[in-house]
User: Fold this.
Amino acid sequence: MTEQLKREPGRPTMKAVAQEAGVSTATVSYVLSGRAGGGPGVSEATVQRVRDAVERLGYRPNASARAVRTGRTGLIHLSLHMLSDPWSLAVAAAVNEAANEHGLTTMILADGDWYTALNAQRADVAYIDGLGGDRADAERKLSELVESGQRLVVFDERLEPNGFDVIRSDAIPGSRLAVEHLLERHTDIACLTTRTAYASTGESRYTVYRDALRQRGLPVREDRVAFFEDTQASAFTAAIELLSGYDRPTAIYATTDFAAIAVVNAAHRLGLRVPDAVSVIGVGNTPDARLVEPALSTVGPPDFYRKQARIIVDRALGRPARDDHGELHVFDWSLVVRESTAG
Assistant:
């Protein structure tokens, strides 16, 4: 029978697996669902027979058919703001590791258009990193997706749960810890930030720096502020600008870890020792902060990436939130002092 089935054209079907194993298609479906023991009345020997048949025939479940049958796609969609940022890379790596334990597939939405992508292809859960500029429109789209049955986990510092989970990790208190840590030893501190944070009318990672200096009676010098875009190259160029010349700052506060890592690399390029010539601190507590030489001091929520990944995967598996309206998960920040500010 095996050779005959192998010669049949087309992709092997669940029916073919059932015939090969000498069981019903219902038994095959139950075994392939991953449920322990294969189901009531199904022996371990039968389970092994089905698995052997799957292996011999090269059977692969059809994702579309599975979605129709079970209501699940086996997919986790990640909409990440900046793919080259160590923060985004750490989120993706942690979720992918947790998802693999349950046979789930992680897909990254490179263009950030989560609304269009989720209307085109459903996911067991979608993780959305921030809502962008038009928050009212984004919240409307979230409501539409929830009404259609799409599970969502949204990372946002202001949003409240509304049929979806919200992960909140307020960077402002942590950013204050970073600046205050530098102020313990330095009075000439530069800031590497984004123009958006600089122009903010509310609190931002830049205004934390500005206000902390003013509270200490220190000047906020224009030549001590440099801007980067969403690329490591722009952060490196801005860091070179801050560190070139004789009159350079003794410390730099960078508003992301990837910008702080760029400062360390720029210092190396200019022959400056960190932290002897310049101390550096970042924001985010990303895994990459531990890998740079010297290791980067930073601020961020402890063990954030693993814990966040568990929340996302739990929702993908259909594990409910404690509240029908969704759950708010709050992660507080702390200071992590490493070699880049030691000395």
